[in-house]
Design a protein that fits this description.
By secondary structure, this protein is mostly helical. Helices cover 79% and strands 0% of the residues. It has helices at residues 2-24, 28-39, 47-63. The protein starts with a helix and ends with a helix.
């Protein structure tokens, strides 16, 4: 239970930072990934799956560029 909350807070914080970065620079990709990072913990159950999805989405922040 506690691990899930910590995972949600960590990836939600990364998502919030990505959203603010995208909004400030008028880039839609970081904004979109930031929103997904903030919302996905509500729909994904299980610590391993949650960490895996969060890691992939965070990796996409750095890989998915124009």
């Amino acid at each position: 239970m506690t691990e899930g909350i910590i995972t949600s807070v960590v990836f939600g914080s990364i998502g919030f930072g990505a959203f603010i970065y995208g909004k400030k620079n008028a880039e839609w990709k970081p904004m979109l990934l930031g929103i997904v990072l903030m919302v996905y913990p509500y729909f994904v159950r299980g610590l391993v799956l949650s960490c895996s999805v969060g890691a992939v989405l965070t990796l996409l922040l750095f890989v998915w560029k124009d």
